[in-house]
Specification:
It contains 26 helices and 31 strands. The protein has 780 residues and is α/β, with parallel strands linked by helices. The longest helix has 24 residues. It catalyses: 2 Fe(II)-[cytochrome] + nitrate + 2 H(+) = 2 Fe(III)-[cytochrome] + nitrite + H2O.
Length: 780
Amino acid sequence: MDNNVSRRRLLKGMAYTSAVAAANAMLPGTAFAQRAELMDQDDQFQWKKTPCRFCGVGCGLLVGISHGKAVAVKGDPASPVNKGLCCVKGYHSVQALYGSDRLKKAMVRKNGKLEEVPIKEALDLVALKMQQTIKQHGKDSVSLYGSGQWTIPDGYVASKFMKAGIGTNNLEANARLCMASAVTGFLTSFGADEPMGCYDDIDHANVFILWGNNMAEMHPILFSRMLDRRLKDPSVKIISMETRTTRTGEAADKQILFLPQADLAIANAIAHELLKEDKVDKSFLDKHVSFKSGKTKIEGHATIGYGLEDGYKFTDEAKPSDLEAYRDFLDDYTPEAVAKYTGVSADDLRYLAHLYGSKKTKVMSLWCMGMNQHTRGTWINNLVYNLHLLTGKISTPGNSPFSLTGQPSACGTVREVGTLTHKLPHGVVMNKQHREHAAKIWGVDPDHIPSKPTYHTVDMFRALDSGDIRFMWIQVTNPMVTMPKLKRYREASQKEGRFIVVSDIYPTPTTDIADVILPSAMWIEREGMYGNSERRTQHFDQLVEPPGEAMSDTLQLMEVARRMGYNNLFPWDDENHIEEIYKEYCLHQAGSKHGMAPYEVLKSQAGAMWPYVNGKSTQWRFNSDYDPACKPGSGFDFYGNKDHKANIWLRPFQPAPEVPDNEYPFWLCTGRVLEHWHSGSMTRRIPTLHKSVPEAYVEMSRDDAKRMNILDGEEVRLVTRRGKMNFKVKIDGRGRPVDGQVFVPFFDENYLINELTLDSYCPISKQPDYKKCSVRIEKI
């Protein structure tokens, strides 16, 4: 094919994409018709289904393929997730395949410089270095750090390679940084992970209470479904609780601003009012709820602890409790008392309690990183679940506490496959029966699978610093942008005796530190599956060829494992390996509690939700009307816990590990923007998205800027106890902090804001708190 013709066709498709995205922003209802009319005029296009490459919503896309290129995108009207709608990132997603600096060849560092080599040579070197490191320092000196962007086959092969092959639990994924508290919150409350509801709850709820998440920008398709629900029923209310004003708050029926870390006290104040006003479902509590008191023990430097290394120890032993003890516990959380240190008025606290407690309302609580990236992330998840359990508003259509996810397969590949140090594809390494179950499928001795977890993500990089880990293979993630207290871990990676392998599609600050770079196939350049936030598994075929010698992360892992002598663990032929891997993975999850949809079903439709039983997805778990795993006729059966009851936890308010003071008088919060996804390594290579938001900035309140004589667009210096960095100021942009707070997005590798953030984490989930530390602003 003529290259000029190919380029014209590619540009034409991308022009369609940009035009329709712009049209959709102004008039969503007509954009899809416009796209269909434009694209269907060209019979050269073939439309193929795939989930979106970006966030955890899992929108269904149709990608237009012409002459071997992905040239256009439209929403898949057959997808029950997005019903034909896409956000601006989804519409432009295929352009991420074609950046000018795409990695196409393997590279090896020789005499301090990276040089291109055949990928076979690079894979040989990776296998050799792993074997040498294990021989010299032991099997726990090697590690694999992956991602919620891994496909399900990627993650399954990674788990099998590390735990059944090498025999180490040194496997983690960056989802530890974004949804670990959702996992531990769900486990401690319900004994089983993943939400009980689904996105269709949006179509049934009367009230949406958003706990510190900017859905309008972070999960715009779900937010649009919420707005559509309100449009059809004007009595529907959206309540946005925020620490700064966002587009979500502007679109909400009511905005409630609160101080950082105050969500713990707010939830307890709501519970206090529910009990005081007798707005609880007593029958539900009697039949389906147990009360637990966390006997928390803190040792060491408690004032700055929260997962730091200063001799800090934390235990959270569960003790039985009861409703009366819970009432007594909540005596300290009257609306008047809580109002004094949360920034939320007593009237607003009572209003929230009224919404949760009203028998006429179906309530959906939604949250994301604001709750999960929290030094008490597990606790605040528990406390929001408490509100739904107190009122019996759970596991029925429209009554759903729902943690949203940031990555396309953080649920499918991390929570479900279990690519964390303590996890297995089914269960945990600490449980002998779970190890035996995995070992039988894998064909290894159960004792070969270690029974103790090793390093969670932050500790894994600390072990790289200390030298306990000498080899790290990083796939599909960019930790040299995303790790908190970043400078420490970048310096750790460069210490003598460390060997770093990075698999990626573009150069990043993480490939900058690599000894070996492996070029990866992206998304539709290979076959795979993602699992989204509502337990929906979605398959995609390989639609285009990867560039150069790029190969899938699955095949990279298998090639290295085979070179290390683990051929028996990876017997699949390269042509049909995805189907065979998925079918083996399904053996781990078989049964009514977590059965996965067959491969053939996923191929034929826009995803299926587990538990998939008798040819049907389960939309609502723990409810015998919908969930085949429940005891028939039980009403509600929280079968994850031994007593088949859900837990209400007595969890206190505790302050943040670092709070503003005279030296550092502001709060610093980090997060995302609509146009860019995570560290920006893909979206910043999409011209339209990059031009929309070309660089990071710092948001300040107008009053703070006026007081400090700072103008919009001027440069200031942010200083924390960990570093300093200059940013241009944005005043009255799309996000507006309250006085005493600033916000910086983290997508821009030229402004590594995580050099300034704190690496304190929830001691239960081990998830860091990126949302609050103290900072000083210096006028330049």
